[in-house]
Structure formats: C-alpha cells, structure tokens
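Mods, move this if it's the wrong board.
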Amino acid sequence: MAKFKRKAKKIFKNTRVLILLFALLCAAIAIYPAFGREGVAIQSVQKDGGAYNAGIIVEPGVRPTAKEIITLIDNYPVSNMNDYYRIMEKLGSNMTVRLETNKDVYRIETDEEGSLGLTVAEASMTNIRKGLDLSGGTRAILKPEFEVEERILDEIVESLKLRLNTFGLSDIIVKKVTTPEQYVVVEIAGATEDEVRELIESQGKFEGIIQNSTVMTGKDIEFVGLGGTEARVKAPCPKYGDMYQCEFMFSISISEQAAERFAEATNKLEVEGDHLSEPILLFLDNEP
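Not the wrong board. Structure tokens:
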C-alpha cells in the first residue's frame, strides 16, 4: 500500500501528467456538459413570423448550450421533440400562444397554418458542435450557371451568408469549393430540405428610397461595381478623436425607367458639396 502511494505521488508530480490533467479540465469546461436537460432548442426564426414579431432572436454562432430552450407552451410542458410536435398539432390558425423559455415568456400569434414561425431541435447536452449527419439538417450544393471569376464566387458566398443570416438562422456554413468545377456548399443544421430550398430560391427584396418614394428595386439593377475604381473607400478619411470616418463609394447601372424615377425624385433636391440634401436609403428585406 505504501509502495502504491509513493508511485501515485510520483505520477502526480510528473509535469506531463499535470499538463494532461489541466487539458482535460479545460476540455470539460469548454464542453460544459448539461446532463438531464429538458426542452427543445430554438434553431431559427422565420422572418416576419409570429415568433419574430414577438421578439425571439437567434444570434448566429451561439454555443449549443446557450441556445434559448422552450420549456412550456400554453402551460403544457415541453421535454423533447415529441412533446413539441404533439402540442403543435393542437394549435389552430390565428391563435395567441403563451410560450415560455429558459430566458423569457412570449405571446405569439400563429399564422394561417397554425405555425409559430420556429425551427427547433433537441436541446444540446454539451457545446460539441455535431455534423449534419449526427444533429440533423440539410446540405445543398449549388453550381453557377457559368464559370465566374474567383472574386465573383467569393461575393456569391458572402451574399448568401448575409441573405441567410437575415432569417435568424444559426449553425450556418456557406463555403466555396473548386474541383476545378465551381460549387457553393450550404449547410444548415436543424432545417429540412424544403426549408433550405425555399430560403435559397427566394429572392431578396431590394429597394432604393428617396423621401419615402421608391425609385428603384432589385429588378432595376443591371450592374454593381465590386472592386477597383468601381467600389472603393473615398479618401481622405477625416479623423474624429481616436477614430477615422470613411465614406464608401460604389457604382451601379440601373434601368431606364428607374433612372427616370431617380431624376424626378432628385430634381428638386439641393446639392450640398458632393452630396444631395436628402439621403438615398437602401433596404434589403426591409432592413437598412
């Protein structure tokens, strides 16, 4: 027994063993296990749906254990996905539903189909991010109609990320793949194939507004400058305290009809320096 104790002391005084134990401790803290957790985690929120209008937001990249967990719907306990779907089957159209989470209580109006405008998944027990094959979700592989320059493919990837993030989705991966064929891979955890297809195929709503008048929409845009002299930071950048304020410039080509509307809207505006007296407000999906 004494010999065993001496060996144990010797082991725990070994630097490598101490480093290993410290690494294991850090890993356990990072994983942050939450065993016995009940409820369903909110994965995404449908834009302009009932949950969205009630104030539920999903922050991109949030840790799995930090996601908002639904625990009660109209005082019915929600322990797992079976409970959630059983309750959802009872909901009708245009109902006001009381939804309680681990963070807040919401009053949500269902839509014509009795939906709350939410995508949910089983509450995660750890912070380990699982692949789609384990956690469920959809992977879409997109191919441009024709070969494009590398920078254009990068712009497509960034545009898709921005587009999908407007729907309040978390656990999104958008990346380009060249094999040498060009592809864009989209992976969304907790989403069905139909949901992903609808999101990707739906076109963003773009509007250019001057004094509450829409002068151009996405259909009017014929060309957008992406680099070089067509899109750049306007120099110089004046300094205010410890910060610099820079202006960004980009060129676009619009349809003849939009140009006429633009001319009519700006005809009575004054020119102040190199700016109009009223701003041109640009909106994507009703967001500035």
